[in-house]
Design a protein that fits this description.
There is one protein chain. This protein is mainly β and 261 residues long. Helix content is 12%, strand content 33%. GO terms for molecular function: peptidyl-prolyl cis-trans isomerase activity. Residues 1-16 form the signal peptide.
């Protein structure tokens, strides 16, 4: 009887340990440091969610290479290639407030085309905390007369003021090419792109794509080359005759004659 009880306890301890630490098929080692109970965890992160993350990156000896704790959280969309692949894997299935250690092997970290940072080509030792999850509420989709494809990926209820010519817009964006190649994102800079609508400050297709948006609204848009960079493109990132795929969010709308709060 006593042996049976001891075996059951050991089995439970082993199960709990496996539940808090594991290695993925890609060789990424994950350990939950702060676990959030099911009663408090309303949703878990999944591809397509926009996450706010705190991180600390260290080398094998424990020397801190970079950290944003005590600063603004880093914002990215999970599973969209906006971060290294190992981080997309390491942040999947997290609850808000959860903390993890994530060890990412070199082949899942910064490649030869990645940003020049200390630790490139080495195993990456991360401590991460998930601050927030945003999951969108989809709306309508349509094609404009000019050929811009628009899909409202998050609609805002009770909106009374919509973007129009002359408004100053604070926009967050992520840009991809048609084959899914990541080009650029304002989210990675933690500040919005600001421009005045219909004044030639952006490509014509962007003015069309933002028309009628509400603060907080998000859209996926596809802009044809004739409303973007045409036959010449914008080398080296954007080739000629490229269709531009944008994820957009309108963070703030400032209308002329109205005092900014």
């Amino acid at each position: 009887m006593l042996k049976s009880v001891i075996f059951s306890v050991l089995l439970a301890v082993c199960w709990a340990a496996n539940d808090r630490s594991w290695t993925t098929e890609e060789g990424i080692k994950i350990e939950i440091i702060k676990k959030i109970g099911d009663s408090k965890c309303k949703i878990r992160s999944e591809p397509g969610d926009q996450l706010e993350q705190f991180y600390k990156l260290s080398n094998k000896e424990g020397k801190v290479i970079g950290s944003n704790f005590g600063q603004k959280p880093y914002t990215f969309t999970l599973g969209k290639g906006e971060v290294i692949h190992g981080m997309d894997v390491g942040m999947d299935g997290m609850c808000v407030g959860e903390q993890r250690k994530v060890i990412i092997p070199p082949e899942q970290g910064f490649d030869d085309d990645g940003e020049e940072v200390e630790g490139k080509g080495d195993t990456l030792y991360y401590f991460v905390e998930l601050k927030s999850i945003f999951r969108p509420k989809p709306g309508d989709r349509w094609i404009t007369d000019d050929g811009v494809h628009i899909h409202v990926t998050h609609e805002v209820e009770g909106c009374t003021e919509k973007a129009q010519a002359g408004d100053t817009l604070h926009q967050q964006y992520t840009l991809y090419l048609e084959d899914g190649t990541f080009v650029d994102s304002s989210w990675s800079r933690n500040r919005p792109f600001i421009f005045k609508m219909a004044t030639g400050q952006v490509i014509k297709g962007m003015d069309i794509a933002m028309e009628g948006m509400c603060e907080g609204e998000r859209r996926k848009v596809v802009i044809p080359p004739e409303l973007a960079y045409g036959e010449k493109g914008r080398p080296p990132a954007i080739p000629g005759n490229a269709f531009l795929h944008f994820d957009l969010q309108l963070q703030k709308l400032i209308r002329p004659g109205k005092e900014e709060l």
